[in-house]
Amino acid sequence: MNDGVFIFLIRHGRTEWNKKKIFRGHIDIPLDEVGIQQAEKAGKYLQEVAFTTIYSSTLRRAFQTAQIISRYQSKSVEVIPCQGFSDLNYGEWEGKSYERVKEEYPALYKMWEEKPHKVKIPGGETLSEAAERSFKALEEIILKHKGHFIGIVSHRVIIKLVILKMLGIGESGFWMIRQDPCCINIVRFYGYKFSILRVNDTSHIFTLKENLGISDF
């Protein structure tokens, strides 16, 4: 392979709070039983990729997913935690269902649905702040891994923001991209350009009946 880098952006498997549509953010909850099954399926699907390294959000749901995927590699692959890929800090929304957030913050939630790039959640961070830290982490990884296949296990919001930045669209396009639990996105970086090869691939988990009605939450 040449000096290009293939980047596999993988969303973590399902948690109980994904199922119940509760905002997670920096609250450190584990995968549920279905999430573990999803990660196992992803590991089998990616077992011939031959990752050099797998990076992960520091949060347990992502790190668990990364560890499971790494076990399916033919050679030992290190899983490295990276704060830059941790989930959006939802501040006061964390631990609350989206129904409760809609009731307690009606105007702000409406803006979240219509103009998410303008939202500053009390006690949390903006999409632009999260985009800046996550893309900086990605750039540092690319410099270290020319000619390699790299896995990055992160979160719905973070992966959306990274892809949007690659496309030059910006945070206003947040709802243009869907990211279901344990989906896989593939990107090639070569010649100072990103090529998006695959987005929100969930073909590896379609056989799980629990994935019927999976959602971008």
TrEMBL record:
This is Histidine phosphatase family protein. It comes from the Bacteria. Keywords: Hydrolase. GO terms for molecular function: fructose-2,6-bisphosphate 2-phosphatase activity. GO terms for cellular component: cytosol. Gene3D superfamilies: Phosphoglycerate mutase-like. InterPro entries: His_Pase_superF_clade-1, His_PPase_superfam, Phosphoglycerate_Mutase. It comes from Aerophobetes bacterium.
